[in-house]
Every structure is written in C-alpha cells, then in structure tokens.
TrEMBL record:
Keywords: Membrane, Transmembrane, Transmembrane helix. The keyword Membrane applies. The chain crosses the membrane at residues 20-41, 53-72. This is DUF4181 domain-containing protein. It comes from Thalassorhabdus alkalitolerans. Pfam families: DUF4181. It comes from the Bacteria.
Length: 79
C-alpha cells in the first residue's frame, strides 16, 4: 500500500512506474563494482606485480558483460 501526502495536486508519477534506482539489481551490482574497484586499486598499489590489477578489472567487465547479455536477452530466450 502506498501512502502519500496530499498536496492539492495530482501525483506526477503513477506508483507502478519504477525508475532505474528501484531495480533490484542496482544495489548488488553497485556493491560488486565498488568492491572489485577497491581490490584493483589495492592490487595496483601494494602487489608485487602491479599489472595484476588488469586481471581484476577485466574480470569485472566480463562479469558485467555477461549480466548485461543475460538480462537484455531474457536469458537467451529461456524466459
């Protein structure tokens, strides 16, 4: 049930409309990218091989590409 305060005007959005912020994937994806970015920076600064962070960054973008493909194609037509 949606409770809103009445301000004398009609609401600009219908309650059923969702924005990108209300998507259930935004928080876990944001957390994943934040954690992997911090890991890549720490590998770049403190690892014995600074180029090792390239693997972490490429792994992060590969995961993002797989998720993008899965959700944009409805799991390759399986849904």
């Amino acid at each position: 049930m949606l409770v809103t305060a009445y301000n004398g005007r009609e609401p600009t959005k219908q309650p059923a409309e969702l924005t990108w912020l209300h998507s259930p994937l935004i928080i876990p994806l944001g957390y994943y990218f934040l954690v992997e970015s911090v890991r890549a920076v720490m590998e770049w600064k403190y690892a014995s091989h600074p180029k090792a962070c390239l693997y972490t960054v490429s792994q992060m973008f590969f995961f993002a590409a797989i998720l993008f493909l899965m959700f944009m194609t409805d799991f390759f037509g399986l849904l």
